[in-house]
Structure formats: C-alpha cells, structure tokens
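To whoever is on call:

I kicked off a structure prediction for a single chain this morning and the downstream step that reads the tokens threw a length-mismatch warning. I double-checked the sequence; it's 206 residues and nothing unusual in it as far as I can see. Pasting both halves so you can look.
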Amino acid sequence: MRKTSPSSRDHRFDWAEIRHRLEVSLQSGGSPGGEGKVKEILHARARALSQESAQVRRDEEAAEFVEFTLAAERYGVETPFVREVYPLRDLTPLPGAPSFVLGIINVRGEILSVIDLKTFFDLPHHGLTDLNKAIVLHSPAMEFAILADTILGVNTISPRDLRPALPTLTGIREEYLKGLTPDGTVLLDAGRLLDDHRMVIRDAPE
C-alpha cells in the first residue's frame, strides 16, 4: 500500500458519501432513534448553510451608481433612481422659487425643475458651463433634475464597502448621505431627496 504524505492528501470531502455511510451504519447496528437524530442534524446544518449563502449573496450584491462632480467633489446617486442624464440647456429661471432651484427645463415636452445641490449643500459656486448636465431623478411620487458639473461615469460598489460619513460632512449633507466609497465618492440617498417636501415647487401666489 502506498502511503500518502500529509502535504499531498486531498482534503475535499464527499458529504453525500459520508451521509450515506452514517445512515447505513445506523440501520445495521446503531442505537434506536439514532438515524432520525443524524438526519435532523444534517438537515439543520443544510438550512444554516443555505441561510449563510443567501446572506453572502445579499452582501455581495453591488450597488450601481452614476458618479458626477460638484464643486470639485465626487458624488454618486444609485441608478435605479436615475431616469436619464440630459444636457443642461434652455434653462428658464423660476421667480419666487427657493434659492436652490435653478429653474425649469423642457425634457421632451416634460417640464422639470432643476435643483442646484451646491446651493442646497452650501458648496462653492463656479457658475454654469457647457459641461453642466441635469441628472433626472425619479420615484413614483416625484421627479426632478439635479445639477452636475460633469459626469464621470457609472460605477458599482458592494454595500459592505461603504464607509461612514466623515466628520467634515455635517449639516444638511449628512441627512442625505448613504456613505463614502473607498476612493472618497459621496454616495447620496436619492430616495430621501425625492421624498423631501422641500423639493415640491408650488405655484407662486397671484
């Protein structure tokens, strides 16, 4: 017989074969009720492994987000809330609107307000350029566009890789912060923005 050195042993186990041997052993000479106990243990372990695998899959599900810049900082909003990215053109000011509302734009016949997050978050302003884009956010109850200085692209991140907010991100930004990516991109809570009653632009009184 050839001896196998410890370094060359195959440590993989055939669990189906092990389970079969246990059942055969119990049927041939095991204690009464022992077979049922083993089956119960095996089934419990299988359920636990299934639950752990499902949790791992949930943890590994990557969140996709549109990354853009605001005042030289990188921000992101998750793609399920993004309807489209539209060039900022033909912007019409809206008298009497809050200061963070730049105005309204016509997106294929639909009038949408444009929210300036730099004003909303009290970030530095550098004026509008031809590079500015409008990211149209939507939910069943609300739809508007947010201003972006430039669009960097679409990225993904696992929820478990998001880091807590930095102490410097205080005030209103903290309310809408989901976390920071490892490279420092601020992931915003687009759902919370869309639920904010302050984004509802009402007609000015006559």
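Update from on-call: the warning came from a stale cache, not from the record. Cleared it. Sanity check on the structure: The chain has two domains: 13-60, 63-199.
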